Amino acid sequence: TRQGDKITNESPVAQDSLLIDLSRQTEKVIDLGPTISNQSYATQIATIEGKEKFLLLDETHIYIFDWMQGNLQDSIPTAACGTLMDYSGFTYISQDSIFVFNDLQGILYLINRKGEIESTWRIPHGTSPEDLTPSINALNRTRIRLCNGKAVLSGTTQGNLAQAKGIKIPVSEILNLETKEWKNVVFYPDLYTRHSWGSSYLNTVHTAQDGKGCHLYSFPILDYVLRYSPDFSSCDTLPMKSRHDRGISACKLSNEDY
After folding, report:
1. Other beta carbons within 10 Å of 17
2. 132-147 as b/e, with b when 16 or more CB fall inside 10 Å?
3. Which ranges constitute the DSSP H helices of the chain?
4. What Cα–Cα distance (Å) separates residue 120 from each residue in 106, 109, 110, 117?
5. Whose CA is closest to 102, among 134, 59, 166, 39?
6. Which residues of 172-202 are buried (b: 16+ CB within 10 A; e: fewer)?
7. Residue 219 in contact with residue 235, Cβ under 8 Å?
8. What is the rounded distance in angstroms from the CA atom of residue 221 to the CA atom of residue 196?
9. Strands 215-218 and 61-66
10. Residue 59 gets which letter from DSSP?
11. Are 10 and 1 in contact (CB under 8 A)?
């Protein structure tokens, strides 16, 4: 709900789709029907008017399905946000506060239930290697999050990060929704620039938020999860290594010397 220039979450997400306890879940069938295109980008499970809903974004709409019945109930047009493609995504906060990120434009939109634009913010671009900004995407693994009047945006950088020795490569930045100021808050661990880990899969970051508002970051080459406080002022770790895991080895380079 919008209160002046502030966004509040009066209808909290029922359970983030990245934090579902799979051991307690039964199979769910959602009947997509003939309306939705093959280009679906992101999904979310949210509580709307006290009931759990399954939301799905394609190029033109956010479709709302009843979670229990599995049938389509409503949709929110996203045409005002331009053509959505690639790493575009969304986050449902409440019926009149929905973030939509247009990857092609590099713009974050806030729309209401009618698809009308309430606010826009353009993603900044760094002008030097020392002023990099994250490669933002809003897919399920790096969902846009709202925390104390600030939006947290994250993404994965493709390419051999070992070639960026001495440069801090950002993963997340926060946007102050009132002042429109941006700030990088999370970076790839130094281990990524000390060794070669390929250019794609092992760079892929997964983020989530726990019940206390802490931000969780999972990097494939680490055997622990980073847990940041809600304001990113502190960080600790959660061990995640399996006793059967021998670890991941860095790639053997041929003629390059990093």
Report:
1. 17
2. bbbbbbbbbbbbbbbb
3. 191-194
4. 11, 5, 6, 8
5. 59
6. bbbbebeeeebebbbbbeeebbeebbbeeeb
7. no
8. 11
9. unpaired
10. S
11. yes
User: Which value, to the nearest 10 degrees, does the dihedral of the CA atoms of residues 142, 227, 14, 172 take?
Assistant: -30
Digit-coded pLDDT (tens) for 68-118: 888 999 999 999 999 998 889 999 999 899 999 999 999 999 999 999 999
- Quote the Cα angle for 160-164-166, to 5°: 150
What share of the chain in percent tops pLDDT 70? 80
| Cα 222 to the center of its chain, rounded Å | 19
pLDDT in tens, 15-38: 444 455 556 666 778 888 887 876
Q: Is 209 left (phi over 0), alpha (psi -120 to 50) or beta?
A: beta
What would the DSSP string read from start to end of 194-234?
HS---SSGGG--EEEE-TTS-EEEE-TT-SEEEEE-TTSS-
How far from chain centre, in Å, is Cα 230?
16
Confidence band of 130 (pLDDT split at 50, 70, 90): low
Structure tokens at 65: 């399905």
Q: Which amino acid is at 193?
A: T
What letter would DSSP give residue 10?
S
- Using only the alpha carbons of the chain, give its radius of gyration: 19
